[in-house]
Design brief:
Strand content: under 5%
Order of helices and strands: HHHHHH
Structural class: mainly alpha
Number of strands: 0
Number of helices: 6
Shape: globular
Largest sheet: none
Radius of gyration: 14 Å
Length: 161
């Protein structure tokens, strides 16, 4: 059981790190692709891990992954800083919404993903690129919600396992 949890924790961290490195390399144009595949995966996995980890383990995972993300990618300057700030803020919002919403896991996950995606979509590009870019924010938000829905749908049977 612990081995399975660690596998999902590693995938969760790898998705954030891969997203950061690709933005540092390719710039804002890659953010919608990252938003759908990598951040959508992160949003759904975070909710999946909510059902597997204690509150303190979840806090440690959120903060620890943010710090590791920055440590691996400090040369990217504001992208790394923006990632840590947006990641921790959106993770906390997602977590609070997830634990307060009732019902089936898929409903809770998608509801919290919308909240987390909204926070991340505004904070990350605004901090990383120095200005509010409404088209990037909107594109990222839609891609994160769609990606989060897809990944949550794919993970839904594992939650009961």
């Amino acid at each position: 059981l612990l081995e399975n949890r660690m596998k999902y924790v590693a995938i969760y961290a790898a998705a954030i790190i891969a997203a950061n490195l690709s933005v540092a390399t390719f710039g804002p144009m890659v953010t919608p692709i990252n938003a759908f595949f990598l951040i959508g995966l992160d949003l759904a996995l975070r909710d999946f891990l909510h059902t597997r980890l204690t509150r303190w383990q979840m806090i440690g995972l959120i903060v620890g992954t943010g710090l590791v993300s920055y440590a691996i990618n400090p040369a990217s300057g504001m992208i790394a800083v923006a990632s840590v700030i947006a990641f921790v803020a959106s993770s906390c919002v997602d977590w609070v919404v997830f634990i307060r919403v009732t019902g089936r896991w898929l409903t809770r996950s998608n509801t919290s993903n919308i909240a987390g995606a909204a926070v991340d979509s505004v904070l990350f590009p605004t901090i990383a690129f120095g200005s509010l870019m409404p088209e990037i924010v909107l594109t990222q938000f839609v891609a994160k919600v769609a990606g989060g829905f897809l990944w949550a749908y794919l993970l839904r049977n594992k939650v009961s396992a």
